[in-house]
Amino acid sequence: MLSPHESLGIALIAFYVPIVPAAIRLMYRNGQIRPRLAWWPLIPFSLIRIAGGPVTIALEQYSSPDHDYLLSGMGLYSAAILLLNVGAVPLIIATLGFVRIILLDNYTSPSRARILTGLMRGALAIAICLLVAGGAISSFDTPFEIYLSRTLTFVGYVVFAAMHVVLIAFMGFYWRRKKDTLLPSSRIVLRGGLLAAPFLIIRTVFGLLEVALQDSASSPFNPVTGNAVAFALMALLPEYVVVLAHLYTGFSIAPDRGVVAREGVEEEELETVTQEAAKNVLHFITLST
């Protein structure tokens, strides 16, 4: 009989195999104009989740009956921790892409977008490095290495959570104060980001609880050795909802997001204003002569 974690591994493969072609199609459809940051992260995320399925299954089968993962499968344990912890990072990148779309599509000066993106990318790089480093040494069992792994992973998730709070605050501000001034496509993107936000918060909380209770052998929040139901409901299910929300949002807007049409209207208005100005100048010259 399959163990709960083996069932989750099979479910990861089954649920994310159809997501990959959909994510590729979305990138091909919406990636013709920049920014593309909201679409391409769904592809590596889906692939990471598919890769996590076989690793989880192999770890369950390779482990001893008492589930002593650290002694029986250190390599598989590290791989599973890395894949399951780092996997949520692309979703934050996609959320940042939503914010970039709102800024770049609705404002002529992209300075705010560049500043925000630069800061977020720096914080994101730090969070990824911390999570990868913490996961890489998680299979060692010396007291110092266990403490270091826990500290690095916890700080990585704190940075991760802080980024998400900033992005949610930004989207909430624009929804309350400037929703009516945005392009229709930007309003759809903004709504999609806000609807997905609570589920990504749940996923981040699971990561924080996992690290905070890492010293406890009976912690239910370890994605490999903990409670499979908690992992499914607080991590895998929220992630899947976020992915579906991003896919639905992407396919709900025009591939050009209405930016081309808006630019055409602005150019037409500019041309009309220029022509009127030229007529006034000619009329003034005629009167003067």
From TrEMBL:
Q: Does the keyword Transmembrane apply?
A: yes
Q: Which organism is it from?
A: Hypocrea jecorina (strain ATCC 56765 / BCRC 32924 / NRRL 11460 / Rut C-30) (Trichoderma reesei)
Q: What is this protein called?
A: DUF7702 domain-containing protein
Membrane-spanning parts? 6-26, 38-59, 79-103, 115-137, 157-176, 188-209, 229-248
Coiled coil: which residue ranges? none
**In this record, what's one Pfam family?**
DUF7702
User: InterPro entries this protein is in?
Assistant: DUF7702
Question: Keywords for this entry?
Answer: Membrane, Transmembrane, Transmembrane helix
Question: What sequence ranges are listed for the domain DUF7702?
Answer: 4-253
